[in-house]
Design brief:
Elements: H1 13-25, E1 38-43, H2 49-60, E2 64-69, H3 70-73, E3 77-78, E4 91-92, H4 93-103, E5 106-110, H5 118-122, H6 125-134, E6 138-140, H7 148-162, E7 172-177, H8 187-197, E8 202-206, H9 215-218, E9 222-224, H10 227-231, E10 236-240, H11 262-265, E11 272-274, H12 287-290, H13 297-318
Parallel strand pairs: 1-2, 1-5, 3-4, 5-6, 7-8, 7-10, 8-9, 10-11
Helix pairs in contact: 1-7, 1-13, 2-13, 4-6, 7-8, 7-13
The chain binds N-(3-carboxypropanoyl)-L-norvaline.
Length: 320
């Protein structure tokens, strides 16, 4: 693997899931692989799980890690080609990324969408420029449109849970929209959809009118406006808010009945409930679900480490 920005960077889904599971049962096997290699983690937005799990994964591989909260500690970056920089931006991404590439062997980058201009966000301009100018492999720590480390951790979590039960048909996985007070990125939902569409599962997405995701990520999924219908016989329910893609970045629905509750869970096949965290309790998901044995959220967060370690391992093995 060279860069890790999307499921398309993974040649075999099951192979990387199995690699992560092997690493989970034997975390220090590759302690020599990352010796004298440096991982830089650059954040333009807040992070808890991504920052700690990726740092831990790198340390398990024997790497050195440098973390920079670019939004608070760095210079304001310019991304426009040919810009006359006589305003607020201090440094061009082509200079900053090139310098960081000198200090690091691999760089992880987090950069959320601005949720103003759909074309700008969906062109992944910042990420693509960063990859172009830094000259070293780049791992997405959540980009404007995708969060592949989260989705890999989600696949690992489903795979672990599937090993515990005998099933005659594919598991039914439902991604449901949930209410939120803020307009959030579509990245987690896009990414989960993209990975589920490539997995051996029966996949349904449910959301209110106006919340269709970009079809590029959902091809093959069933899409339903009726949440109760979608939840019927679900084995896994993935709860996530996102802002509208068509009416870009807007909140179109404040219907609190979209929150997942124990009552709604009765429609499912005693479904396991997933969320990437951070979760707004009793807005997106009820306390009763999050504190019940059905919740997989902590297991998902744990699996972030093994997802990151499988990805870093694969990139390290490819470094010349
Ligand atoms: C981010 C998102 O993409 O939805 C990060 C998820 C891993 N979530 C938020 O920004 C939540 C912010 C909030 O105020 O609840």
């Amino acid at each position: 693997m060279k860069n890790f920005t999307s499921v398309t960077d993974v040649s075999h889904l099951n192979t990387i899931i199995q690699s992560a599971l092997d690493i989970k049962s034997n975390p220090y096997n590759d302690k020599k692989l990352g010796e004298n290699k440096t991982l830089g983690l650059i954040f333009l937005n807040p992070s808890l799980r991504t920052r700690l799990s990726t740092q831990k994964a790198a340390m398990n591989l024997g790497m050195n890690v440098m973390v920079m909260n670019m939004d608070k500690e760095g210079w304001a970056l310019e991304t426009q080609e040919g810009a006359i920089m006589n305003h607020t931006t201090v440094e061009h991404i082509k200079d900053a990324a090139a310098v960081m590439g000198e200090y690091c062997d691999i760089i992880g980058v987090r950069s959320f969408p601005k949720l103003i201009d759909k074309n700008e966000d969906y062109s992944e301009d910042f990420f693509n420029k960063f990859i172009k100018y830094c000259g070293v492999p780049v791992v997405s720590l959540e980009s404007a449109t995708l969060h592949p480390l989260q989705s890999l951790a989600d696949c690992i979590t489903i795979s672990e849970n599937e090993k515990l039960i005998k099933r005659i048909s594919k598991p039914k996985v439902v991604l449901t929209w949930a209410p939120h007070i803020k307009p959030l990125p579509q990245a987690v939902a896009n990414s989960f959809a993209e990975w589920m569409c490539k997995s051996d599962v029966d996949f349904t997405i449910t959301h209110p009118f106006g919340y269709d995701l970009n079809e590029k990520f959902t091809s093959g999924a069933k899409v339903l406006i009726d949440q109760n219908e979608a939840l019927k016989n679900a084995d896994y329910v993935y709860v996530k808010n996102w802002s509208s893609y068509s009416d870009y970045g807007k909140i179109l629905c404040n219907d609190t009945t979209w929150m997942l509750t124990l009552e709604k869970l009765k429609l499912t096949n005693q479904a396991k409930v997933m969320h990437c965290l951070p979760v707004r309790r009793n807005v997106e998901l009820s306390d009763a679900i999050l504190d019940s044995p059905n919740s997989l959220v902590t297991q998902q967060a744990n699996n972030r480490t093994w997802a990151a370690q499988a990805v870093l391992k694969s990139i390290l093995q490819n470094l010349v």
